[in-house]
Amino acid sequence: MAVIVNVLMTLAFPKQSLIQGLTDKLNSITRESLTGIRVVRAYNAEDYQNEKFAAANDELTRLNLFVNRLMAILNPIMMGISSGLSVAIYWIGAYVINDAAPIARLPLFSDMIVFMSYAMQVVMGFLLMGALFIVLPRTMVSAKRINQVLDLHSSIQNPAQVQLADENLKGQVEFKDVTFRYAANSEAVIEHVSFKAETGQTVAFIGSIGSGKSTLVNLIPRFYDVSAGEILVDGVNVQDYDFSATAHAGQRVAIVGPTGAGKTTIVNLLMKFYEIDKGSIRIDGVDTKAMTRSEVHDAFSMVLQDTWLFEGTIRDNLIYNQIGISDERMMEASKAVGIHHFIMTLPDGYDTILDDTVTLSVGQKQLLTIARALLKDAPLLILDEATSSVDTRTEELIQKAMDRLMEGRTSFVIAHRLSTIRNADLILVMKDGNIIEQGNYEELMAQGGFYADLYNSQFTEDEAEE
């Protein structure tokens, strides 16, 4: 029996791994069909999606049938062994009792019944073991997949000696010759970026899609570590990176550039989501490499284009993971961004649960995320194209709320609408992962370079639309 179980397990286990993968694939196809139902219908792609689902489902069904048929062999084998053992015990017992003396037959019969009872207990144990072997392969595969996730280690490691930033963080951010690549053997997303944002300034990032704007901002809170150079927040290095610019405390820094220029990469490096290859990112003069990720993240508030609201009440979303926020302070923040009146029109006000029964517009969701960032009251702020998906009127409301949010904070703004970052203290123009121009609006327009061409072309397009 052990040989049979071993053979069945050897054949079934590899198939169970394939079944789990196909189940994931089937769920993924189902999910994309449901979440993208409008696109599917718009392109009359129902048959195409059905064919994808049918192909994955047929393959999954075929493998499931093979494994189930294979494991189904165990039951008849175990039942056959159980029945055969019972017959053998009774046969041998009857033969022994028949040859025994009449006076000894009753004790022998009793012994046979007791032995039969013990034998059946052993057989039942094997039957239960057989049932266990039926589900064991899938259980082992599932456990292996879970352990693969649990065993993953973050690529962002805290330094052996943590250099703590001042408790009263000013919000000065400096990029020193920062370079970043997602993999050691891949091309650099941003290269040799240097700038400095002073406390309270607004820094705008512009550039084409893929220029590296978001990546640049994500480096500040150390969502990634720079590959070279340094990112300093108040003089503390977040990690190595190769790019140079300084944002002074309180400045508004705008990051602009075409798609793929590296704007998002800059943001990711600021947040220390990645480590830079070389160079440094400094906050208040401290290299962010010498800071823990949690310390870097505490220094930032973020308002993203994707408005992430979590399941729960409006109150829970506004005070998300913050302790000691009073109702008065929460309402003040909501009033400051212009969302308080709408919240009070809801049946339960701030205790309204956000679910399918509560419909919020994109602008209302964005205002809630701005109020959440205002409540965090961090000295550094990241705005990642926060108004790029709303209409002009809603953009005006959101822009007023963001202006209120940026007061007294060092702000980093990624925007495609250049008119929204015209008042930025420092505008970083990115292309192919490099900062090709930097300065304020007047300085860049006077240069007549890439930014001026980009601004004039966008201004002409806006006039044509009007």
UniProtKB/TrEMBL annotation:
PROSITE patterns: ABC_TM1F, ABC_TRANSPORTER_1, ABC_TRANSPORTER_2. Residues 173-457 form the ABC transporter domain. One of its GO terms (molecular function) is ATP binding. Keywords: ATP-binding, Hydrolase, Membrane, Nucleotide-binding, Transmembrane, Transmembrane helix. This is Multidrug resistance protein 3. It is found in: Cell membrane. The chain crosses the membrane at residues 70-92, 112-136. Its main location: membrane. The keyword DNA damage does not apply. Gene3D superfamilies: ABC transporter type 1, transmembrane domain, P-loop containing nucleotide triphosphate hydrolases. It comes from Streptococcus pneumoniae. Its EC number is 3.6.3.-, 3.6.3.44. It is a multi-pass membrane protein. It holds the Pfam family ABC_membrane.
